[in-house]
Amino acid sequence: MILAADFGGTTIKLGFVRDGGVCARARLDACADHPMSERLEAVAGAWETLLKEKGFTLQDCSGAALALPFLTDPKLQRVLGEFEKFPGAPEIDFAAWGKERLGLPVVLENDLRMALLGEWAAGAARGKNDVVMLALGTGIGCAALSDGRLFRGANNRAATLFGHSTLAWDGAAGRCGNIGCAEDLASTATLPQRAKARRDFAGSALEGAKKIDFETLFAFANRGDACSRSLLGECLKVWAVVVQNAVLAYDPEVVVLGGGVLRSRDIVLPAIEQHLHRRMAGLPLQIPVVGASLGDDAALIGCEVLFKQTHPARLS
Ligand SMILES: [Zn+2]
């Protein structure tokens, strides 16, 4: 049995996982502006409460795993870089924390990579060993699996930053400093700004919206608002090109899509599949594009997968 926690922007999902299933769950407010050391202690306390409720102790666990909204260095067991979330995270020695606080070995990895491992073991990518997963919504996240292992690269960054690829080579510098960055062309962070810059914004349904997010955009487009339809069409094209580029880079058997935008999967999935089929007609690349199926459990289940891959001797 593994202790697992998934640090999201608004909620920390945690629980314990055994044989590919989440045995018990709890949630904490993320409080992502609070120090990581404080949130780790909150997670450890919540694990202990949950274990007690179910009649277990820390001694019944083989280890702990953390899915984090960061790039990580798995060898040093550290987080790379500050991203305005969970301040102080890069200073923490997670291996030492696990040993001192829990008496257990700890593994950590980027949250989308953990979700991909979960979808591979028990969800939408089951039975496929070459998989790309993209999360569309607040940003554009990416993770790739090659022959059943995470595709890591020289600095453990492979695929993770794919959403920051340049799509518009003559575009403006965006939030990350890159020019024409895919994430800046179709994500929640920039959507209001992109809507307001349009000529057809004045008088559109979006102009009267309290909040411009993808939920609003899909709803207004569905009702026939021309500005919303056009902006949504642009976003669908950006996502389709990102998926296409990921297919070219990683040669997957299946593409799994997650993220908030997948609430409108009936629109998103066919649009992307059609783009792949139309634009790559000369190549035998009929890659299925499917929605993630495990929801909040994906990263928790992935925690167990990564722990087993990292410490095979600790689990029979
Ligand atoms: Zn970027």
What does this molecule look like?
The strands form 3 sheets. A 5-stranded mixed β-sheet has the order 3-2-1-4-7, sandwiched between helices. The protein is 35% helix and 20% strand. The chain has helices spanning 36-53, 94-102, 111-122, 182-185, 191-196, 214-222, 226-250, 265-279, 297-310; strands at residues 2-7, 11-18, 21-29, 63-68, 71-73, 78-80, 106-110, 131-136, 140-146, 149-150, 254-258, 289-291. The mean pLDDT is 94. By secondary structure, the chain is of the alpha/beta class. α3 crosses α9 (297-310). The protein folds into 2 domains: 2-116 and 295-314, Nucleotidyltransferase, domain 5, CATH 3.30.420; 127-291, ATPase, nucleotide binding domain (Nucleotidyltransferase, domain 5, 2-Layer Sandwich). Residues 164, 174, 176, 178, 181, 183-184 line the site of zinc ion.
Distance between the termini: 10 Å
How many separate structural domains?
2
Superfamily (CATH H level) name of the largest domain: ATPase, nucleotide binding domain
Examine the coordinates and then state which fold CATH places here, giving the name of the CATH topology of the largest domain: Nucleotidyltransferase, domain 5
Count the helices. How many?
Answer: 9
Mean pLDDT: 94
The ordered H/E elements are EEEHEEEHEHEEEHHHHEHEH
The hetero compounds bound to this protein are: zinc ion
- How much beta, percentage-wise? 15-25%
| Unreliable stretches | none
Largest sheet: 5 strands, mixed
Radius of gyration: 20 Å
Q: Which structural class do you get from the secondary structure elements? A: alpha/beta
What is the CATH architecture term of the largest domain?
2-Layer Sandwich
- CATH top level label of the largest domain: Alpha Beta
Q: What spatial order of strands do you see in the largest sheet?
A: 3-2-1-4-7
Number of strands: 12
The proportion of residues forming helix, as a percent range, comes to 25-40%
